[in-house]
Amino acid sequence: MEIVFSDASVSFAGRTALHPLSLTLFERRIGIIGLNGSGKTTFARLINGLVRPTTGRVTIGGLDTVADEEAARGRAGFIFQNPQHQMILPVLAEDIAFGLKNRGLSATEIAGRTEAVLQRFGIPHLARRRIHELSGGETQLAAIASVMVTGPDVLILDEPTNQLDLKNRRLIEKTVADLPEQAIVITHDLGLLDSFDRVLLFHQGRLAADAPPEDAISRYREIAAC
Amino acid sequence: MSTRDIVLVALFAAIIVVLGMLPPITFGFIPVPITAQSLGVMLAGCILGAKRGAAACLLVVLLVAIGLPVLSGGRGGLAVFAGPTAGYLVGWIAGAFVTGLIAERLVRDSQTEFMQFASFFLAAVVGGIGVVYLLGIAWLSFMSGKAFVETAIASLVFIPGDLIKAVVAMLAARAVQAGYPLLPIRT
Amino acid sequence: MLTGLDIEGTTLLHRTSARLKLIVLFAVAAGLFAVSNVWLLVAFAIIAAGLYASTGIGLREAFRRVRFVLFTVLLVALANYLFHSLSDALAVLFRLGTLVLLAAAVTATTTVSAFMDEIAVLLRPLERLGLLRAADVSLAVGLVLRFAPEILARYGDIREAHRARGLRARPLGVLVPLVILTLKDADTIAMAIDARGFRRQ
């Protein structure tokens, strides 16, 4: 899926969060790194229209994220920094089915797809569990399943391994690596990026590097050392 | 309502539910233990405003009706509506609405601290006590048969506790207004 | 925590549709106020108690659920006895008692989702007028059940944080951060709902 930024910039209340930017993303694995407040999250949220560009435009597979908001959003799934916030119904299976509501699917179809996505991420045993009672790793897997059930072409993950212990970090890293879909990952977990195709480094609202992982990471280390 | 409004309403309803899970407080000078739940009604109006505040209370009433034990002491279900005090519960909706209506019109960011306190207190007393009691007592009188005057007078023992709640609501509402303002202020 | 008050079973009341039970309950509620014969009201109360017991709820739980409401009914009856007459008191006691027991029986045999289906039907006229969407109401109900345990846990955390700082956990000092922290989540939760395309136009 080709994601095209054409002179897209974002300002909130007069402050520029992201300076005008033009680039095309098509690689299977794309990493986004940078210090806190560097514009990473804003950039990622532009992709599925959660943030609207103040100037310029963003398209995903040719669909404009403002003009074709609904359709564009359907192409990109988003995992938030705190996945707790995106699980909105009390029981996991209900929450996963929630994303399929209002799409004209029959109850049997919804149940079938819910079951299939739980199988795909290896968590069918969690179907009847309360979200509140899931562990950190389980919540992250559940959040990924709840987003992937609607069949997006791209998955955007905002610091997916942030609050996890080492074991769960490995589990999520492997889950992301195994995704057949395109994935765009914001992370401070630099080891995750080894096998990535392309890494974007943001600094003070501008793209500071757009390179293979090693080069982008070494530039990041220079910035962080200042 | 926007998605954000729906979420705010639901989160506030959840706060009211949680307030019902906390143990009731007893004061020596008040004859009945006071629960924090009706404090949530005053807060809903003062913090979210009339429309969203009333919607939050309506949501709690709906949860009670569909058989969820969300009232203090784990009470819930249709039996609550069959009792003589159901009017107080239904009165929450109108109470939060009036509380919000007054708060939206009286509270100003430019006011002195004292005036803001006074505005929130008036809103909580008129809406959270006045309106709630009006509906509560009307229903109680209807359900009480001939002794409607006596039961109405007896229900006034809860007023001192509710006045304490109005003070707490006033303090909390102003603190929330300072920290994370949501009240739609009307000029 | 926060599970419905319905109890599993296959009794007659369980098998009766939620709509029929609600219609009968409202009809009986209205009709009871037209009856003033104490003996008739006693008979109704016995039938209601029998129906409530027939749900298979068990005596202890059955009483626990209605004791508070029955206590308020008793107080109202007592006031009638003290200021009016015994027959007035008994009429109020058995009239309201019947109603409470019947209502409790309906709640005990109707699932939350069956109630929600009826609510959706009731909302249909409002939906047609574009005032409210049934899907939004069920979303709101789900959100409360999802986040109430979270908020209760947060209440515990804030109290502990106060203690850790050597402060006494005063109600106001806990309430204000609890409300602010909870409502601040609204933005991300709303964004997550929109991101999942639930409220499409």
From TrEMBL, chain A:
Pfam family, one: ABC_tran
CDD domains: ABC_cobalt_CbiO_domain1 (cd03225)
Keywords for the protein's UniProt record, in alphabetical order: ATP-binding, Nucleotide-binding, Transport
Xref: SMART domains: AAA
GO cellular component, one term: ATP-binding cassette (ABC) transporter complex
Domain ABC transporter span(s) in chain numbering: 3-226
Entry similarity comment: Belongs to the ABC transporter superfamily.
Protein name per its UniProtKB record: Biotin transport system ATP-binding protein
Species for this entry: Rhizobium subbaraonis
Superkingdom of origin organism: Bacteria
GO molecular function, one term: ATPase-coupled transmembrane transporter activity
SUPFAM superfamilies to which the protein is assigned, alphabetical: P-loop containing nucleoside triphosphate hydrolases
Cited PANTHER family: ENERGY-COUPLING FACTOR TRANSPORTER ATP-BINDING PROTEIN ECFA1, HEAVY METAL TRANSPORTER
From TrEMBL, chain B:
Keyword terms: Cell membrane, Membrane, Transmembrane, Transmembrane helix, Transport
Superkingdom: Bacteria
CC annotations in GO: plasma membrane
Record field: transmembrane: 6-32, 53-72, 78-102, 114-140, 152-173
Any one GO molecular function term: biotin transmembrane transporter activity
Pfam name, any one: BioY
Location within or outside the cell: Cell membrane
Coiled coil: none
Gene3D superfamilies, sorted: 1.10.1760.20
Membrane-topology annotation of the record: Multi-pass membrane protein
Principal subcellular localisation of the protein: membrane
InterPro entries linked: BioY
Record-linked PANTHER family: BIOTIN TRANSPORTER BIOY (PTHR34295), BIOTIN TRANSPORTER BIOY-RELATED (PTHR34295:SF4)
Record-stated family: Belongs to the BioY family.
Name this protein carries in UniProt: Biotin transporter
UniProtKB/TrEMBL annotation, chain C:
Transmembrane regions: 20-53, 65-83, 89-115
Subcellular location: Membrane
Protein's UniProt keywords contain GTP-binding: no
Chief location: membrane
InterPro entries (UniProt xref): ABC/ECF_trnsptr_transmembrane (IPR003339), ECF_transporter_component (IPR051611)
Protein keywords: Cell membrane, Membrane, Transmembrane, Transmembrane helix
Superkingdom of the organism of origin: Bacteria
Membrane topology listed for this record: Multi-pass membrane protein
Keyword Transmembrane helix: yes
Pfam families on file: CbiQ
This protein's GO CC annotations: plasma membrane
Family statement: Belongs to the CbiQ family.
Listed PANTHER family: SLL0384 PROTEIN (PTHR34857)
Protein name as it appears in the record: Biotin transport system permease protein
Native organism: Rhizobium subbaraonis
